[in-house]
Amino acid sequence: MRTFVTKASVTKALVATAALGLAVVAPVATAGSASALPAIMIYKVQYDSPGADRGGNTSLNAEYVVIKNTTRSNRVLTGWTLRDRTGYTFRFPSFTLKAGATVTVHTGRGTASATNRYYNRSWYVWNNTGDTAYLRSASGATVDTCSWKGGGTATSC
Description:
Number of domains: 2
Strand content: 25-35%
Mean pLDDT: 84
Largest sheet: 5 strands, mixed
Distance between the termini: 8 Å
CATH architecture of the largest domain: Sandwich
CATH topology of the largest domain: Immunoglobulin-like
Structural class: alpha+beta
Strand order of the largest sheet: 8-7-2-1-11
Low-confidence stretches: 1-33
CATH superfamily of the largest domain: Lamin Tail domain
Radius of gyration: 19 Å
Number of strands: 11
Shape: globular
Order of helices and strands: HHEHEEEEEEEEEE
């Protein structure tokens, strides 16, 4: 879950502190540093594909995660993983995400391209009632997460 700090909220906090006659002794994060998006982020999760969950490939591929490169540089995602709470894991093979581009990771089977990748699973990954998507670098560091509680079909992260 990302937390955003705006200039207005920092200013209000400083004004309130000054009004109470308190000194500010801790450094305050700037809006630019606190609200910066990760270079590679989970942008959207379509966790409930339309219709009944019967496991057909079309239905499986309508369940997906969109990953976005928010930078102006191409980023190598080779060895990165996308997984759910249970541990169902997709590992990126040799893959570069272009600057400003997205890649959609579908649950079912298909032909990989620069914009679409596939888990190649025969059943659903993302829980409709709530789950968490974890995006990790090749070294295993968590780059981004996205959680939902259900009650819809998708979430923007």
